[in-house]
Amino acid sequence: xxxxNALTSANIVADNIETLKQLFPTIxxxxxxxxxxxxxxxxxxxxxxxxxxxxxxxxxxxxxxxANKPTTATLRPNKKESKDWDTxxxxxxxxxxLEVLKLMQKSYANKIKMIYIDPxxxxxxxxVYKDNYTDxxxxxxxxxxxxxxxxxxxxxxxxxxxRYHSNWLNMMxxxxxxxRNLMTDxxxxxxxxxxxxxxNLRKLCDEIFGEDNFVTNLIWHKKxxxxxxxxxxxxxxxxxxxxxxxINNWRPNMFERPDxxxxxxxxxxxxxxxxxxATNLSVKTYSKANDYIITxxxxxxxxxxxxxxxxxxxxxxxxxxxxxxITFGKDGTSRPYLKTYLSEVQNGIVPTTIWxxxxxxxxxxxxxxxxxxxxxxTVPFDTPKPTKLLQRxxxxxxxxxxxxxxxxxxxxxxxxxHAVMQLNAEDGGSRKCISVQLPEPTDExxxxxxxxxxxxADITKERIRRAGxxxxxxxxxxxxxxxxxxxxxxxKLDSSNITAWDxxxxxxxxxxxxxxxxxxxxRTEEDILFEILLKYGLDLTVxxxxxxxxxxxVYSIGLGTLFICLADGITPQISEGIGAWKQELNPSICRVxxxxxxxxxxxxxxxxxxxxxRFGIEEVNSI
Length: 623
Hints:
By secondary structure, the protein is α/β, with parallel strands linked by helices. Helix 19 (about 600-615) links the parallel strand 23 and strand 24 (about 620). The protein is globular and about 105 Å long.
């Protein structure tokens, strides 16, 4: 029972601070509310002059504001580069992950169970994408070919840059802030990094996720041997920082007990409780009450070793002896030991913070995996992570149901997607993977470029395709393997399909044309369809059924919860057909979206609404 030292009224201030901390973990600094941080999170630009302990860098206020800015981008479906479009639940998105994460805020808020990212390590050789906070989408679209609007080549973030660490932090901050919003309440994120930025990343994550939600810093032994040409120490490890959204809601899964560990358990005396091992009956913490003489079955007397005591009291020892849980060896002359039964130990091993390459793979093995997949060419990626590492991370972080959505928004060579498919094949799980990759151009001198992989995103997609086929081949004799999801829906980041009204009186004639037909001429109905899904907060893999009604294409989304018709020349017959389809599917709620310019007149629009109202559809919108 907890002791109450004094009867006091509720500490309202403390309770309010705790409530705010749950909503905005970054505003609490050493027990106090940082009002400027709160204002910034609510979209205000603040000038902070107070002095106290905090983590800051050049450009932080802009990076913080950027995380709150909406995006005008969209995701355009790319069926040509997809695999199993109609059946897959996996997603691959090509584009700047900052804009993509913004687009995911409605559709995937609180839905991502686990995130793994392997961001640039900022070693001076990495490409660190420098966001343009004035127009980040325009910036992305103009430099996809790696040149800015003045034709200047964008280089790596070298140590000679005066904002070397700041550039990296400015890239990471808004992305991690947005990523946190996507995590489930029991979600967890794993971030690979090396010594160059681990100290800054730890402080950054303490701000974004809250210090209380730090779990551990895993050390992955990534190399077989030392580099004898190292200047100081040979670097053979990476860090993997682990943070939860809420430390009270997540626990790591245990690893499977290896056969060699279980093989140590024997049953030489035919104990009905089964196999056991002898464990030490003494403990180094001395207790006078537990310092007593034990008499064995042959009359030999035993005392605890010097400066130690028995682990149990005299009374408890007697109970264990009578229950057959004490052994004195085969002939009864050995020191007493406690019998620990295999049936009573934990069904697994608690994860440790140091991961050997024997358990989690290594760099050479990762390159070998890629080489085996791309057998028709040399390795097209310099620094892949081993599938074994990602399988281990997923196994530790996922839920028991094994049907989580796993996100990797620095997907690189596609190891996370590969690991998800591999685990699903092994244990029958139904995990889904969302991969996001910037189409960063490959170096013209690289093996990837020579093999006609002109950007990293192309490598990622091809690796996922090939890995899926290899997995199906490896497990060809397993029941149900033909249903294994090894596909992905591919999307590309682009500007909105809808032309915005700019309100400039100098362009009035042009803007009136936009008002009459605001859909960009080079966009398809499916382009617009997926933009609507994102705006309405619907999953990109939500079931979509297509039907021809009165010569026009109509889409049913989510089994009739939303109908969309983006055709021109909308007639009453189309509204009647949608109403009949709605009755057939019988959804609990239903809404309809038309293209505004699809109606010949306002009268036709009113008629459509009246027809749909007869079928119980009250919400009718247009774009």
